[in-house]
């Protein structure tokens, strides 16, 4: 069931090219502006890590809210929620789809740091693969929950995203430190990476647990 629901969400994302392209363009513009502004910063590892997680946050939260709002306007979300399936399964599939967006955006930002921060010693470190995975695990489900919140309240997408930042903040900070330590090949990356992974799993679990009440009012 999860596989079929995930397939539905991915097919919808593929068909809604204008919505997805707009969301990804916003992510790309923010990332490019950040890279151009900070590429000569004194602490290049921290600047690169900050840009990576800024892109991850926008890709996972704001883009998620925009995609869900667009699906509801098109009537697709209502049809999925009325289907005879567990609503938490619907949410899980949605979180996986949005996690894919967040993970790909994060991976693209990491790849861009090779061009704009070529002197960082950590480029090519295989442990950096964990960074997009952490972003996908934590920000995908939270992005799905943010999207549902923007539908069920009058706060709108931007404010709903802002309300999610206190929850995602520790994940973003821990992920930023882990990324910085890996790019700079600094000691202490294990602690920050472990905390970021654990917090991402906790956020995903909490988002899943509260997803059913959220879908009731979506």
Please supply descriptive tags for the structure shown above.
single chain, 218 residues, mainly alpha, 9 helices
Structural class per helix/strand content?
A: mainly alpha
For the largest beta-sheet, the strand count, sense and barrel status come to: none
**If you average the pLDDT, what whole number results?**
74
Oligomer: single chain
Helices, by number, come to 9
Strand content: under 5%
Uncertain residue segments: none
Over the alpha carbons, how many angstroms does the gyration radius reach?
17 Å
Helix content: over 70%
What's the domain count? Answer: 1
Quantity of strands, as a count: 0
The helix-strand sequence is: HHHHHHHHH
Overall, the morphology is globular
Distance between the termini: 21 Å
